[in-house]
Amino acid sequence: MKAFHFLLPLALALAFSFASASDPSPLQDFCVAIPEPKNAVFVNGKFCKNPNLTVAGDFSISGLNIPAFTGNRVGSNVTLINVDKIPGLNTLGISLARLDFAPYGGLNPPHIHPRATEILVVVEGTLYVGFVTSNPNRLFTKVLYPGDVFVFPIGLIHFQFNIAKTNAVAFAGLSSQNPGVITIANAIFGPNPPINPDVLAKAFQLDNYTVEKLQKLFATT
To answer: Cupin type-1 domain: from which residue to which, for each copy (predicted)?
Structure first.
């Protein structure tokens, strides 16, 4: 019985901790972000501007209609509009991205957003998209056309790939003011300092020469 009295509060505490594991809910109409004061400690989010000094420009940005450069190695470009671009997003728990893809082969490589679920809508072109679940790993994929929508759950590896001979454009909403991104290949083969090649060789069942070649390749990106 004593164990029950101990476990019940623990279970309730865990439940509440999971329920609040997302961007904080605002306790006011808005909290326009300002640079941190000198020597301040960054915890989460930003400091707030005096509401009387807030202007419409704190909630707006232009230029998302302009195509981004896609002549890079992966043939894609992501223009993220987060709290650093629109200070008024602070505490509101959302952000937006424009995704541009080069003709056939433009790829937004496998990556995760550690703090956000993503909902994507295609406005131009044809995209092959998908995500992989946690163990046991299941792959969910779909070909999307203009007007189609797809959801990528928080924290799961996902990708988008242009399978048409024309440019592709999509917009994505994310459930965090600062969703973060971890591109899998870059994180594995390109961190600084690099991961011990012996670790990667065994993990990926590769020889050390191949691992070191990949590390040199991604160290330059």
So the answer is: 64-212
Q: Which two tokens stand for residue 138?
A: 């299941």
**Interval 86-98: pLDDT, tens:** 999 988 999 999 9
Calpha distance 187→180 (Å, rounded): 13
Residue 12 pLDDT > 90: no
CA-based torsion, 184, 144, 177, 57: positive or negative: positive
Q: Does the annotation place 5 within a ligand binding site?
A: no
User: Is 50 within any annotated ligand binding site?
Assistant: no
Helix, strand, or coil here: 5?
A: helix
Listed by start position, the domains of the chain span 56-180, 187-218
Contacts of 114 (CB under 8 A, 6+ apart): 154, 155, 179, 180, 182
Task: Say whether 158 counts as a known binding-site residue.
Answer: yes
Class of domain 56-180: mainly beta
Q: Cα–Cα–Cα angle for 85, 87, 93, nearest 5°?
A: 95
Q: For residues 143 and 117, what is the distance between their CA atoms, to the nearest angstrom?
A: 19
